[in-house]
Amino acid sequence: MPLTMIDAGVETTVKQIHGRDQTRRFLQNLGFVEGAKVRVVSSLQGNLIVSVKDVRVAISQQMASRIYV
Amino acid sequence: MSIRLALAGNPNCGKTTMFNDLTGATQYVGNWPGVTVEKKEGRWKADKEIRITDLPGIYSLSPYTLEEVVARDYLVGEKPDAIMDLVDASNIERNLYLTTQLLEMGIPVVVALNMMDIVEKRGDVIDVKKLSSLLGVPVVETAAVKGKGTKELVEAAKKAVSAGKLPPQHEFPENIEKALQQITDMIAGVTEESQRRWYAVKLFERDQKVMARFQFSVDTQAKLEAIISAVEEELDDDAESIITDARYQYIGGIVKACVKKKKTGMTVSDKIDHIVTNRILALPIFALVMFIVYYVSVTTVGTILTDWANDGVFGDGWHLAGYGAGAYEEAGAEYETQTAYRDAWLAAAEEGGVDVSAITEQLEAEEPDADVLAGATAALAADASAADIVGTAAFEDEETGTVTEEAVDFGMFETAMAAEEPDPANYGIWVPGIPVLLEGALGGLGIADWLYSLIMDGIVAGVGAVLGFVPQILVLFIFLALLEDCGYMARVAFIMDRIFRKFGLSGKSFIPMLIGTGCGVPGVMASRTIEQERDRRMTIMTTTFVPCGAKLPIIALIAGALFDNAGWVAFSAYVIGVLAIIVSGIMLKKFRMFAGEPAPFVMELPAYHTPTLVNVLRSMWERGWSFIKKAGTIILLSTIVLWFLQSYGWENGAFGAVENIDNCILAGIGNALAPIFAPLGWASWQNVVATVTGWIAKENVVATFGQTYGFAEVAEDGVEIWANLQASFTAVSAYSFMCFNLLCAPCFAAMGAIKREMNNAKWTCFAIGYMMVFAYAVALMVYQFGGLLTGELSFGVGTIAAVIVLALMIYLLVRKPAKADGAEGLRKMSVQA
Questions:
Q1: Cross-chain Cβ contact A26/B829 below 8 Å
Q2: Would B594 be classed as within a structural domain?
Q3: Contact (Cβ atoms closer than 8 angstroms) between residue B425 and residue B320
Q4: Which of B208, B217, B359, B704 is spaced 20 to 30 Å from B243 by Cα?
Q5: Which of B426, B461, B490 is the last residue before a domain boundary?
Q6: Can you give the pLDDT at residue B833?
Q7: What is the pLDDT of residues B123-175, one digit of tens each?
Q8: What is the total count of domains within chain A?
Q9: Least-confidence region, from B101-110, B687-696, B802-811
């Protein structure tokens, strides 16, 4: 399911990233690769702060819905 | 022998701090050729032979962002002697991703493991020796914030350069290696051996920029494509993702071997974020922070500093550290009381039939003659009828508003006449202002009148007016630097993103606009943090719609002269500013050059940490200095031109300095331009000229009205010229004038900032042109529709024009957005600390 549906504080693993190549590559460069452990730190009206590889990344809802966990 | 080192690393890894520590004051800041990406170069403090180039903060060497392209072009094209790769040890995994790519460049690499203190605090352990042996390159522990390990880093880089040993290559999984080998063979003849690995990987990723460099024949291209797709098919993924995955796999192995993690859940930073970006608290907390910043830097401390700079340094002078200011004020108040006694008695005397014309006439003169006054007073003392006159002086208590009356007899009048206006220089330590000092100095030199006028009325008055804002701006910059350095600024963009996205801007556009309420120059400059070019350009174009501090006097003037000081006028000015931004955002999106969604919001949030004084002050100074430089160049030039236009013209058939301002060249220009503004309802040349001088600095508008209506000096709200304005304007045309001046091109300083941030003459012209057209359209509608409503205008050509403009605007607002011009590269998505 998309990352948008994960509750804050729960750690999960990235399964796949959908979407346009460029967006996808950008997410991958930031550490969102298959198998990476992610945790939602906080959510604000759909926008998320996600912890991945010890980094906090803020992503919009639109981006988060492309990350499947 | 000089050595060239490149400093590379992720955004937020402490690279800027490291660079500052290495190079100190020797750095040179410019732009990379052709782009607005900042390029910093400097020499090592300890050895000037070592030149260091600071590469932009990047996450990888892909061709998608400007920063990445700039960095890799530099590494491939200029081939520095060694790369110092700064790795944030507290998120080592993601940082090593860039390292794996740097290792392939065919250049010696030294890894600096920064922020080890955070790692230790967390209780984690990193085996540095093992990391070094696994990567095959030297690893140096550093703490850039404390300046620790930086010397060792450069020494290690020097050693790596003299050894000339290239880093060993890590192996990708076998099937990828096989494909890479095949590609390497294909390009063996046309590349240097050291760079072959990098080219092979990039070709495997189908990197368009690298492909273009080789100009393969159709045959070779087909062969390459076959190699790549074979692997893609085997692994069921695209080539680029395959490489990315393989890199992270490899890094995963290294991290497992070298890093021992103490399992922790939420970090302190996470806990802060839990509150600060909380769904309920986020906005209130944000509003509170902004209120404090705004309140301190614009109203309290900022105003004190601006007053000091404008009235003190660039005015008459000031009391050092306020010493003597209190005594002077008391003396001033006492003098005012005496003047009130004097005037009250004189009024009573006039009513009582005593001839006091000798005194009143003298008092009305520009510089009353003290001897004549003393003589006239003495004459009155001899006049018996004067002795019986008793006047009534009324004093109003400013706080309570109660009026007390005092009787003034002739004795009090005599004392009052003898009272002298206090000279501030006699109280405490008085420091004269620059104009006063210059006046003295220039007077002594005996220079020509025109030169004196150029320096005093042109340069000092013009540049001084702008430099007067420097202290206030510096205060604002300190706050900004604090917010940036502690990590909150990145969160602000996150919080505001959902709201701003609705009208086509990203959350990062909010910060420039907020700063713009103080001054548009730093506001426009703050747009740098917006990575996507399209979003940044739109932000630059709309930021100065917000009424800045210098536009407030214009609002006060119009509100005072024509709206009886109604509070809603000032409020409506802000509403118009915000609406202008929203409407522009939606409208501009309908054009192809701005079309498309704002860049999807992805931004790394740096961990919260205590700001360091050095960083904050340095950041404040860097921004402040660029503002001062601008005042010294573009504003200086424009004030000289304006001074000339205002002081010279044809008078009595000859060209020269004019006595009457109606004859100056500027008035001629104003008259020529006036018809253009006739549909807006204010076609007199004074109004046009005031608008023109507003482009030098907006606070000039009120002063220019004063001059053109023949007043030497007017108060900030121009109370002296209210009557003139009432004659020249109707309520509707005054409001139209205000709208135009609020929305049209900002002052030269801000236009200079726009030019610098656009870094492109065409875009600068477009931005300024857009503001002009937009301002004209709004003012036109205000005047035409407003005039129709109040009955001062009848339906005519102007009305039709206004209707067309309105229709066009509505059409642009509701029209379907244009198609985007292809997918533009996502630019670096991070706020650089």
A1: yes
A2: no
A3: no
A4: B217
A5: B426
A6: 34
A7: 889 999 999 999 999 999 998 888 888 999 999 999 999 998 888 888 899 99
A8: 1
A9: B687-696
pLDDT band at B355 (very low <50, low <70, confident <90, very high): confident
- Cα–Cα nearest to B546, from B587, B504, B575: B575
Closest CA to B240 of B195, B217, B208: B208
Q: Give the residue on A whose Cα is nearest the Cα of B63.
A: A22
Last residue of a domain, which of B219, B237, B255?
Answer: B237
Strand B38-44 to strand B47-54: parallel, antiparallel, or no bridges (unpaired)?
antiparallel
Inter-chain residue contact A28 with B241, CB threshold 8 Å: yes
Q: Is residue B70 part of a domain?
A: no
What's the CATH code of the domain at B229?
1.10.287.1770
Contact between A54 and B90 using a beta-carbon 8 Å cutoff: yes
Range of the domain at A40: 3-68
Mean pLDDT of the region B530-545: 87
How much is the pTM?
Answer: 0.72
Q: Which amino acid is at B589?
A: K
Backbone angles phi and psi of B807, in degrees to 5 = -60, -45
pLDDT at B33: 66
Interface test with B, best of A4, A17, A21, A60 (most B CBs within 10 A): A60
B626–A contact, CB cutoff 8 A: no
Q: In this structure, what are the phi and psi dihedrals at residue B15, rounded to the nearest 5 degrees?
A: -65, -45
Boundaries of domain holding B372: 325-426
How are the residues of chain A apportioned to helix, strand and coil, as percentages rounded to the nearest 5? 25, 40, 40
Predicted confidence (pLDDT) at residue A67 exceeds the cutoff of 60: yes
**CATH code where residue A16 lies:** 2.30.30.90
Asked if residue B184 is part of any domain, the answer here is: yes
Confidence class of residue B828 from pLDDT cuts 50, 70 and 90? very low
pLDDT at B760 over 80: yes
CB contacts, 8 Å: A25 with chain B: 62, 64, 240-241, 244
- Report the domain count for chain B: 2
